[in-house]
Amino acid sequence: MQFKLFVSRICSHSEKLVHLTQIRNMSNTMKAVVIQSTGDVSVLKVESVPVPELTSNQVLVKIHAAGLNPVDTYIRGKKFGYDPKLPAILGGEAAGEIVKVGNQTGSKYKVGDRVICCLRAPNYGGYAEFAACGVGDLIPLPDKLTYSQGAAVYVPYFTAYKALIARCKLQPQELVMVHGASGAVGVAATQIAKAHGATVAGSAGSEEGMKLLKDLGADVVVSHREDGHLQKVLATTGRQGFDVILENRADINLGIDLAALGVGGRIAVVGSRGPVEVDPRNFIRAEGSVLGVNFWKITEEEFIQYSSALVAGMEKGWLSPVVGKEYAMEEIQQAHTDLIKSHGAYGKLVLKIR
Description:
This protein is an alpha/beta fold. 35% of the residues lie in helices and 26% in strands. The protein is globular. The protein starts with a helix and ends with a strand.
């Protein structure tokens, strides 16, 4: 017993020495993707900048991977009301390990812990080798997930969870249609809906994407490049209409969504790139609802609720992000181009930091 205790103390001491060495060897500067001005992808530059200083309730995280999201391109381009304080380091989600803790962070997190950083406006900071993150904005990252998978949790899964569970009040056995289900939010929505006992239909724009949805357990898989794909789902399932539809391109699909909505059905709009024309009579026919979903309006109480549910999903194994492609920091301009212009979405795009 004494020998085991002795060995345990040695291991603990060794781990502390390793992390102390990392901190001592840490340069005062780091590599980061910085924008000095807003504009097209050419404003994205890899530069050497100071390592963030911590406040008393923050931790310093050595970033291994950062999630890439369409909103990053909107901020970079100063579109849709996003006006970053310059110079800026983009990236609202990242995953890594804690290398330093503030003096008022409590005992929940310690040096060496694997975490997901939920980085908030206006500072963000995920596209960098290190990031300062408040302890209230951390999510534990289980060993069964990679850092790249960890960087694919916050934005996609919180968005899908808020849309399906918080806003649409999804119930078991309901028929859910997930548009663009092979993308990051679509994968999250498919996994969440299946875990809650729904019948899930998903659309994709490529054969690879459709295969992914089948592998994820979607009950019906269709190509959204085919006319009448919503009616095909209804015919296959024998349903009169959809109970819930998750919509990330409302400017294209909202009109046909309303026409295919079941009585009392709900449409969660998580994305749109412009206006759309709809027939209001479909609201009357279905007594349906169209619900806006704003990821940036998640409250602290909701953050705690969603985090708890999603960490449980990671532990149980049903929450398993799909990483479609990883980019080096020097490939950031191509990554932002792919975020918007690539077709046939497949999983999450991730910036590999280390």
